[in-house]
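ok trying this again, last paste got cut off
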Amino acid sequence: MATTDDKGEDLIQATLAKKGYTEVSKLGEGGMGVVYKCRHADGGLRVLKFLRGDFESSEEAQALLEEGNQMRQLRHPNLVQIWQLIMTPTLVMLELEFLAGGDLHCRIHDPQGRPISSEILMIRA
C-alpha cells in the first residue's frame, strides 16, 4: 500500500483546516490518493477523497472538472452524493456524502470474498 509523503500530507491537512474540516479517521490509502472521514464545522460528517497527480495539464484538468461537475448533479438513492470538487495543480479533493455501514466491497461479498448473487443483494435492500 502506498503512503502519503510528508509534503502531500501537509497539503491535505492544510486543505482540511482551510475548508473547516477536522479529521475523524483515515478510511483508506492507495496509489492514487487517500480517503478521510471528516467532520465539517457545521457538525456534519463527510468523506473527503484526495487524489494526487499532475493536474496542471489544462485539457486533463478541464475534463476532470467537467466530469466532476456533471457527477455532482446526479441524484439517486444508490449513488453516493458528490458535494463538491476542488482542484489544485497537484491535488483534487472530492467532498462526498458519508454513508454509515461499511464499504461497498463488504456489502457485496461474503466473508470469504466471493461475490454475493444479485438476487440476494436485492432481498437485502
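PB: full thing came through this time. The CA atoms of residues 1 and 30 lie 6 Å apart.
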